[in-house]
Amino acid sequence: MARLDGKVAVVTGGASGIGEGTVRRFVEEGAKVIVADIQDAPGQALAAELGDAARFAHCDVTSEADVSGAVEMAMSEFGRLDVMFNNAGIVGAIGSITETTYEAWNETVAILLSSVFLGMKHAGAAMVAQGQGGSIISTSSTAGILGGLGPHTYTAAKHGVIGLTKSVANELAPHQIRVNAISPGNTATAMTASVISGDHTDTDGAADKIGMGSPLGYSGFPLDIANAALYLACEESRYVSGHTLVVDAGQTMSGMTAHRFHQGNGTVIGEAGRRG
């Protein structure tokens, strides 16, 4: 049997980057997946490519109706929900703390932290009602563990994801619902390419640059994070809850920090590296 045979998952931010890699990995292991993303064209294309194993749900993760709709689609299309991966994210507000606008702060927190609350809320309710346990996974970051690895708002939100993970894990444990987080280190995606070079399409260049600064000497890729999500989704992690799985080549162990985000006059870097 594949590791996720008979399981149904929702992956937010599932149309690109880590989300897309996870959708593909989950389907390889037998899951049915709702690709939930605000990016309609790539999300629809991915679901069409994967055929009967996937459906696309337009999902703005700051909209409670959209997040609950993705959960409801899993139930209506596939009859159950076993895994919720709250993965959608942006870099968000960059720049000095003295120049970051309250609007940019709120937008970033809404996408990076409030969306995780919404995913936990609606997936948790569905799983409790189902009465068969489940796994809720959320993407934090090494910036959720150390200061200096991300912009201020991003860092605060990613710390919040870890705190919320621990708190909700405690509440949902009696229902055999496990709640965990993943903290990726530098990973070659469109979003990181945009930060590194200003070109969101240059993931190869980003991988080369990340590899030069990696303790292991090579970059992380979406598949590396997808494999971590697969572990937390499947029964191999049945005794793991309230945990943050760091996937960073030892970056946080070595205490590596890089203050790269404290310029930019409040620029917001959005999905797939979009700047605005």
Describe the fold and architecture.
The chain is α/β, with parallel strands linked by helices. The protein has a single domain (8-273), classed as Rossmann fold, CATH 3.40.50. Helix content is 45%, strand content 15%. The chain contains 9 helices and 9 strands. It has helices spanning 17-28, 40-50, 64-78, 102-130, 152-172, 190-197, 203-213, 222-233, 251-254; strands at 8-12, 32-37, 54-58, 83-86, 92-93, 134-139, 177-184, 244-247, 268-269. A 7-stranded parallel sheet has the order 3-2-1-4-6-7-8, sandwiched between helices. The termini are far apart. The relative contact order is 0.16. The mean pLDDT is 90.
Q: How would you sum up the global shape?
A: globular
The main β sheet shows up as: 7 strands, parallel
Number of strands: 9
Structural class: alpha/beta
Number of domains: 1
CATH architecture tag: 3-Layer(aba) Sandwich
Count every helix, treating DSSP H or I runs of 4 or more residues as helices: 9
Q: Helices and strands, in N-to-C order? A: EHEHEHEEHEHEHHHEHE
CATH topology: Rossmann fold
Provide a compact summary of the structure:
This protein is of the alpha/beta class. The protein has one domain (8-273): Rossmann fold, CATH 3.40.50.720. The protein has nine helices and nine strands.
Protein traits:
seven-stranded parallel beta sheet; globular; Rossmann fold; alpha/beta; 276 residues; single chain
Outline the secondary-structure elements.
Blueprint: E1 8-12, H1 17-28, E2 32-37, H2 40-50, E3 54-58, H3 64-78, E4 83-86, E5 92-93, H4 102-130, E6 134-139, H5 152-172, E7 177-184, H6 190-197, H7 203-213, H8 222-233, E8 244-247, H9 251-254, E9 268-269
Parallel strand pairs: 1-2, 1-4, 2-3, 4-6, 6-7, 7-8
Antiparallel strand pairs: 5-9
Helix pairs in contact: 1-8, 3-4, 4-5, 6-7
